[in-house]
Design a protein that fits this description.
Chain lengths: ~290, ~425
């Protein structure tokens, strides 16, 4: 039983990070109706920026804030330089182009910071909490990550449902022509969507780094799991991305604990396939909201 | 009609004979060999997840070749090493190898890195008859002269390594009674280890694994499992980045068993990048098999000279540069032994007949003959000290083969002194 609880706790904190990346994917989907495979690359790049700030100033909060700013700016740059020119003529081409951006970012990070994995010092203690005579696989730092994820999803949900900015963003993504006729500045909304997604990914990168190491490719596997979570959650749903992001973390943890970890990616992909067969709009998706 | 057919045959035969006669001189000149140059190629990870550490290997080999070339080369020929960055990606390894063969027209492959990557090209290299020297992986499948007569591994296989670990754990008084557990990477790497431990008769209380890439997040489930099983000695068969995450997660969960880590998964210079100052205390006391003279043993004639070569080329002295220079040294001796009239067949023959006389910093015998391409045959047991240097624990070495059965055997081996000025 204690084993089961250990696996659950470990899965929760690992899943929170998958959830953050899935959130970023959903945000781009919401603003541009496309999947951004460069998301983990952008997050990796801004995490290196944060690492540089932290190493020179020793200030974690400053590092996080700079990463958020850099994430937003990088999102906008990617949108202007790559996505907008390509997407106008070919929307599938734009998705492929995001792979190109990913490779370019990885190569760029390798040139600037080198390929060796680097550690990131956590702002609060990362040792497991001692309780009832044993140490549990959840640390003060894990609690920080989980709270940040919860705060972010609540904040973003409010933004999209309660503010005119959020509603305009959704309208521009869903039907740019009608939105434009209704007086929404569609271009500005697309830019906002990419900026918010970039900033969210940046938070995810900075939060996972202390529990991991950063190298140009270290977040690659996250893309697979975040994408799975986002799709099962319905691609359009913030709460879906978070639920299934944490769910994916739990599946990996339980499979790794009770059987061979090699089965974990298989289980995740089987769940994705079942989901696409049985409920192709995603568990939290609205029917008819997507036309791909 | 019959007559006509016969003349046709004769004409054909003559043409074929003529073609053969003209083809002979072309064949005599081996690809990649001219009067003053030998072109060799390597595929390795200079970028990507496997690059840390390994990217230093070709640079170190190049440093040694520069040294040899500056001293007159090998039988009057200079070595020209072409490096292709495959990012540890089998598709890129395939592309790179084809490019090295067709565009660079290499004479031989040297030091290609990785089991999945090299598995993609090993058949093609053998089909074309290209010598495939010192493949840098412990994947046991490459020691198979019947299937791959041109292929020679650089390091003892993971089967050999796990047999050696099993032998030592059963023999050592401090380890014998401990509750033993296994942590491994899924795939051929971990499967090879399991074969060796089965042959050695090692019993594990529990085993747990990770998939390549999982080390991006803490190994909470795996460590919880090891901890609750009461493991006192954990054997680790994973890459260095996974070892870093395993040691980090274990520290987080207050789990501090005795570690025994594969020789390819514990490089301190890579661990320090991610674990920082915690590396020393976490790694201290960990057992690690090794086949080279300890790198910090500067009094050793191999270490001192190789260190100078690395330093002169501006390279850091670590396991990877040491290994790169040593492997290049062995290759140079093989090329020299193949003689002035250098051919691909001649190189393979030189390896199969002269390998035991080649000098190297390895402290285990090298076995290469027509029946076995094993190369280095075993390990001594080492242990990390407080400075994260490997100290040799056993005066003896433990030797084994990659076969599914048979345990490791204890032996003593005194390596011969290096050649003059470390030149082939």
């Amino acid at each position: 039983m204690t084993n089961f609880i250990d696996y659950l706790l470990g899965g929760f904190s690992n899943g929170a990070v998958i959830a953050l990346m899935a959130l970023a994917l959903v945000l781009v989907w919401r603003s541009t109706r496309m999947v951004n495979f460069a998301q983990v690359g952008q997050a990796m790049f801004t995490t290196y920026v944060a690492l540089t700030i932290q190493q020179s100033t020793g200030n974690w909060v400053l590092a996080l804030l700079v990463a958020i700013g850099a994430g937003a700016i990088l999102g906008v740059i990617v949108f202007f330089l790559v996505i907008r020119p390509v997407k106008n003529s070919d929307s599938t081409g734009a998705i492929i182009a995001t792979f190109g951006v990913l490779i370019a970012l990885q190569a760029g990070a390798g040139m600037i910071w080198g390929g060796d994995p680097r550690g990131f010092i956590p702002p609060v203690d990362n040792a497991g909490l001692e309780f009832a005579g044993r140490i549990w696989p959840i640390s003060p730092y894990d609690i920080l990550v989980l709270s940040a994820t919860a705060a972010l999803v609540i904040g973003l949900t409010l933004l999209f449902t309660k503010t005119s900015l959020g509603l305009s963003m959704r309208a521009s993504a869903f039907n740019p022509e009608v939105a434009r006729l209704s007086g929404v500045r569609v271009n500005r909304m697309l830019i906002s969507g990419w900026a918010i997604a970039g900033a969210t990914g940046a938070i995810g990168g900075v939060l996972i780094a202390p529990a991991s190491t950063i190298s140009p490719n270290s977040f690659d596997i996250l893309l697979v799991f975040a994408f799975t979570a986002a799709v099962i959650g319905g691609l359009d749903s913030l709460i879906g991305a978070v639920t299934f992001g944490i769910g994916t973390g739990l599946v990996i943890s339980l499979v790794s604990g009770y059987s061979d970890s090699g089965n974990a990616p298989i289980v995740a992909l089987v769940l994705l396939a079942l989901n696409l067969l049985l409920k192709p709009d995603g568990v939290f998706g609205h029917h008819g909201a997507r036309s791909v | 009609m019959k007559f006509k057919f016969a003349t046709g045959t004769v004409a054909l035969g003559t043409a074929a004979a003529l073609a053969l006669a003209t083809a002979v001189p072309a064949q005599a000149a081996e690809p990649g060999v001219t009067s003053n140059k030998i072109v060799i190629g390597t595929t390795t990870a200079l970028t990507g997840p496997a690059a840390p550490g390994y990217k230093d290997v070709p640079a170190a080999a190049q440093a040694y070749f520069d040294y040899v070339n500056a001293n007159g080369g090998i039988n009057g020929r200079k070595i020209d090493l072409r490096v292709f960055d495959d990012q540890y990606n089998p598709a890129l390894a395939k592309k790179g190898t084809t490019q090295l063969i067709l565009r660079d027209k290499i004479f031989a492959m040297f030091g290609a890195l990785g089991t999945p990557t090299h598995s993609a090209v090993v058949q093609d290299l053998n089909r074309r008859g290209i010598p495939d020297l010192f493949v840098n992986t412990g994947g046991a499948s490459f020691d198979n002269p019947k299937r791959y007569p041109m292929t020679f591994p650089a390091i003892p296989s993971y089967v050999v390594e796990s047999k050696v670990m099993g032998y030592y754990m059963a023999k050592d008084k401090a380890l014998k009674g401990k509750k033993k557990c296994l942590f491994y990477q899924d795939g051929e790497f971990g499967e090879n280890a399991k074969v060796g431990f089965k042959a050695a008769g090692t019993k594990f209380v529990t085993t747990t694994s990770y998939f390549s890439g999982q080390q991006v997040a803490p190994f909470s489930a795996q460590v919880s499992k090891l901890k609750s099983a009461g493991c006192e000695l954990v054997v680790v068969f994973g890459v260095t980045s996974a070892t870093a995450q395993l040691l980090g997660t274990s520290a987080k969960l207050g789990f501090a068993p005795t570690w025994m880590i594969t020789s390819v998964g514990s490089d301190p210079s890579v661990l320090k990048g991610s674990l920082g100052a915690a590396t020393g205390p976490l790694l201290k006391g960990a057992y690690v098999p090794s086949f080279l003279v300890p790198a910090q043993n500067s009094k050793n004639a191999y270490v001192s000279q190789m260190k100078v070569i690395a330093k002169r080329a501006g390279l850091e002295w670590n396991f990877y540069t040491y290994f790169g220079i040593n492997t290049a040294y062995v290759l140079s001796q093989a090329l020299k032994a193949a003689g002035k009239n250098l051919t691909r067949k001649g190189l393979v023959k030189a390896l199969e007949t002269n390998a035991r006389d080649f000098r190297s910093a390895a402290v285990v015998p090298m076995v290469i003959n027509s029946k076995s391409h094993q190369g280095l045959t075993g390990y001594y047991m080492g242990q990390y000290n407080a400075n994260s240097d490997v100290e040799r624990l056993t005066k003896y070495v433990m030797l084994a083969t990659s076969s599914k059965s048979g345990k490791a055997k204890q032996a003593t081996f005194r390596p011969a002194a290096p050649t003059k000025k470390l030149l082939p």
